[in-house]
Structure formats: C-alpha cells, structure tokens
Design brief:
The chain is built from four helices and three strands. By secondary structure, the protein is of the alpha+beta class. The longest helix is centred in the first third of the chain and has 10 residues, at 23-32. It is extended, with a radius of gyration of 18 Å.
C-alpha cells in the first residue's frame, strides 16, 4: 500500500481502481486495455509484456474462532487440518500451490471448492 500512497502523492489526478482476478482474467484485461498493469502470481510466459520479476513469498493463514484449539498454536501443520472444511481456490489447486506443503496428507484433507476464493487457503473449523 506504500506504493499506492506514493503514486497518489506524486500524481494526484490519477485515479486508482484495484481489480481482483485470476491470471487469465488479468492478462485478458491487459490485452484489451481495460487495466494498465497487473500483478500476476502465476507461472506463465510474459514475453509479450514489459515486466518485472517480483520476489514472491506466499503467506497463508487460517480463519477460525478464538477458542478453537488451532488458534493456540504458533504454527499449523497439514495433519492439523485433516477433517476440517478447507476453502481452496480453484487457481491454487490447478497450480498445485499447496502440494509441497501438505505432501501425502493432501488426500486426507476435506477441500471445499469455492471459485470466489481467489487468494488461497481458508479453514473454517467448528469448535
């Protein structure tokens, strides 16, 4: 958000509208000129664009009630999520984003598909 603040200060007449979408949607919007730039978190060829490679670090979190036993942990392991309903974006599944993390436990996870969840992994466990 610091970058946005700098843009607003340096160019007060520029209007900023943030748009969320998957990499395919953002690439289409770039091609049609409906957006000026995009941050793509996907493995794809960018040869037809002027682009910068950003250092990518994924940080994921879980949403749960405060009194849930998982809320007391400093770190969550894949085995902790077995049997809990997990909302995982279709894009994250297609790109196998969590396979390295959850390893062979992935077959035991209860994944709930939600195409509106574009950002990753969410857990809504009952206490």
């Amino acid at each position: 958000m610091e970058v946005l603040s700098e843009i607003i200060q340096d160019y007060p007449d520029v209007k900023i509208r943030l748009v969320s979408g998957n990499a395919d949607e953002m690439e289409t919007a770039l091609k049609h000129g409906t957006i000026d730039f995009a941050v793509l978190m996907a493995h794809r060829s960018l040869d037809s664009y002027h682009h910068l490679q950003l250092p990518e670090t994924d940080r994921w979190g879980l949403a749960m009630q405060k009194d849930n036993p998982l809320a007391q942990k400093n770190a969550i392991k894949p085995a902790d999520l077995i049997g809990l309903p997990l909302l995982v974006s279709e894009q994250a599944l297609d790109e196998h984003r969590f396979q390295d993390w959850w390893g062979n436990v992935g077959n035991n996870l209860r994944l709930v598909q939600n195409e509106n969840n574009r950002s990753g992994l969410f857990c809504y466990p009952k206490s």
